[in-house]
Amino acid sequence: MREGEPQRVVGLFKKFKVPVEVVDARAEFFSALKGITDPEEKREAITQTFYKHVFGRIVKQSGARFLLQGTILTDVDETVAGIKRQHNVFAQLGIDPQEAFGYAIIEPLIQLRKDSVRKVGKALGLPDSTYQRIPFPGPALAARVIGEATPERIATVRNATAVVEKLLQGTRAFQYLAILHEDRVTGMRAGRRDFGLQVEVRCWNSIDARTATPRGCPLQNWKNWPRRSSRKCRES
Q: Which residues pair with 205 in a beta bridge?
């Protein structure tokens, strides 16, 4: 999740007088992701862990019969077309959640794309900061780590995400994000050779999250980046 996201969600629903229980399932997810580097295998590990184990346990304890989730039409398109496996798509793949996990899934937004979802959010009177936020991956930050998603690497990309979203929020781009690479980069710091992690910044325009075009996002205020995020040049 994003930095500070659990607290933000609790605060948002508190305004609507809806109590929220935060479940810390980090140990289960990182255990399921251990040793996995393939992107699709990571997505499947997260899917099974959430629906079968984490939420499945909550269902058994509470007796809940339904899960309400925000699957949208683009999620279905990408999964069915084989572009990438969205963690929240089942029926279109011939999977019955009731049979597989023990509960049914309600998807009120499944016939809408991102732009329409935002119109619904506005019509419902939700805060702009909620329905106008840039998209975030269902499999969370594990989808933005190339290679194994360890607790340490997730912490790094979470910090990078917070920095990128803060610096590029005025660009009006549809989405901008940070990707953590596996390889190390080298450069000079204080007159000496130094090594660091490589973070790639991606930025593009879209309306419905179905098609997109690259967008240049010059970091005009890059000098304001934290020192730990300073630029480094890859060695030839």
A: 213
Alpha carbons 181 and 218: distance in angstroms, whole number: 20
Strand-pairing partners, residue 197, are: 184
pLDDT of residue 217: 54
Task: Please report which residue ranges of the chain form alpha helices under DSSP H.
Answer: 5-15, 26-33, 39-48, 55-62, 73-80, 97-101, 114-123, 128-131, 151-168
Which residue from 54, 31, 232 is spatially nearest to 149, judged by alpha carbons? 31
pTM above 0.70, yes or no: yes
Intervals of the chain under pLDDT 70:
217-236
* pLDDT tens digit sequence for 172-209: 899 999 999 998 888 888 999 998 999 999 999 999 88
Sign of the C-alpha dihedral, residues 137, 143, 149, 155?
negative
Which amino acid would we find at residue 47?
Answer: T
